[in-house]
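Hi W.,

Here's what went into the run:
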Amino acid sequence: MIKVTYRVNVPWMPAQKGVVGLVSAPTVKELLRNIGFEAEQHYNVLVAVNGTNRLPEDFLEEGDHVVILPALCGG
Amino acid sequence: MLDIIIRVNMSSLEVTMEKLPEGYRNLSGRGLTSRVVVDEVNPGADPLGPRNKLVLACGLLADSGVSSSGRLSVGAKSPLTGGIKESNAGGIAAYKMARLGIRAIIVEGMSQNGHQHVLVLDKNGGSLRPGGDLSMLGVYDKAQRIYDQYGKKVGAVIIGPAGERRQVTAGITNNDPSGHPGRYCGRGGLGAVMGSKGLLAVILDDTGASPVGPVRRDQFLSRAKQIARWIKETPQTAEVFPKYGTASMLDTTDAIGGLPTRNFSTGTFEGAEKINGYALHNTIVARGGQGTPTHSCMPGCHIKCSNVFPGRDGNAVVSPLEYETIGMVGANCGIDDLDVIARINYLCNDYGVDTIEVGCALAVAMEAGLMPFGDSGAALAAVEEMAKDTFLGKIIASGVVTAGRVLGVQRVPAVKGQGMPAYDPRAVKGTGVTYATSPMGADHTAGNTVRLNIRHSQREGQVRASRDAQLGIALMDCLGLCVMLVTALKDRGLLAELVSSRFGRNVTLEVLLDMARETLDIERAFNRGAGLTAAHDRLPEFFYHETNPVSGTVFDINREDLEQ
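Here's what came out:
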């Protein structure tokens, strides 16, 4: 079991943040599923971990800081 | 339909109407502006001389009712980059052009003896009229004079004093449906090209025009409705952009080290929460009055990502206030005050300059020690000096490369002479590849990869991502479509069906993609003729050895990769 902190900053989802415990060697996809993101939503979000973005298949580590944001095409 | 080209000779003051050449029949937007520039402008021409031409074009779907299809493209040889340039914006000008049946306006030659003119186009044709009464007025006063004389419903394409002074950061703006003249084709100094010709404004009066409907009406309407449905089904276009605008990008770039801060010295800003999409939305809503967080910049847009930012008294300060301006004038200058950013945005709009260049130049001036990072008052004062045409004002209005040279700063974020937008290329490397290799210079709109499902700070896959993005954006630009539509566009084949049913001929997606590819190819060929080589396809050196402290990365895409 590892713990990561997370914050959801996606306007169409309820704002939430906290610490979540995950089985060892969890992926971003598992975190998303754990905090309520349906699989079809994964494409619509960008996941930042400790200052860089990660893909759903990337692994998380103990103490990671995760921010989930909308995936946007530009500004 | 849409088969008229207006040719304006500023030397002889003749305005003629031509039939669209058969070879141009599928071209519009950037595809048409670049084609005309390549066909008619010598790459060696002086960008501010009589041999350069300024081309304005609408898209094939302008005034069709399809959401987000009314971008105005402006093209020429750029006095800022020395290469070909296309810059596009929303507004109503392209819509009005289409209602008059005009696909493009080509402005050539140069007015004699410093005389300035206004081009007026209506259902009867076009004429040049004396424009001296508008001379050196700010954009907002110019727009008001135009509305007073021609009515509030006209489309107005305008330059500010910066364009008249041929300053290489000058843009060309046009008005939105509410009358705000703030939809800027801001990049590449195209306002200076228009000013060099002695043309201050283009007035588009569609009173009494008889636009032609789509040839295959039912098919066209069903496809247009599909686009609208996709926009409503996609959370970004249905909920994020209408509420928070493009400023919603700020939290994303801030989280991945991509938000240029204090002249690209880091990629996250401690004041981000004061200037992000939420702050912008909450400020606008709390103040009320003329402010609104949800606003269409063009007729028929279902996304409505524009806004009107009000002051504390509720009166409009500027419209729109966008991510690029907030990023470059805000975080990149260490300024966390939306009121100051909005005021600088207004001043830039009124003087007629690109806020990205000004944000870059201000930050370089801060790095040079002219003022501290985060000094809002000093930044405002420096921007006010542009309109006063003081020495400092001229430096800022000449863009970041000139500012860096005059002030002795080595860390100058620019490619091919053009200042970098609000994505740090060490953290969003695909966009960095676009900055380096696009024919347009450092331009996020030429192929931003931040939406793609890739690891943005890693080296692998960025060249391909940029190449795909540059092609995809060229397709949108060539059709006059807004990039904000991209996320909702589930099937690009629908674009071909829209073009086919509107014009009653069969145009496949492959034909449209070929047009986009060819546009990129001819733009690169023009640049080679203008003296821009692969050696210019590089980022400034500091991005290769100075680590972005947030992403922990440098820009490490080497020259061989970039040349792929």
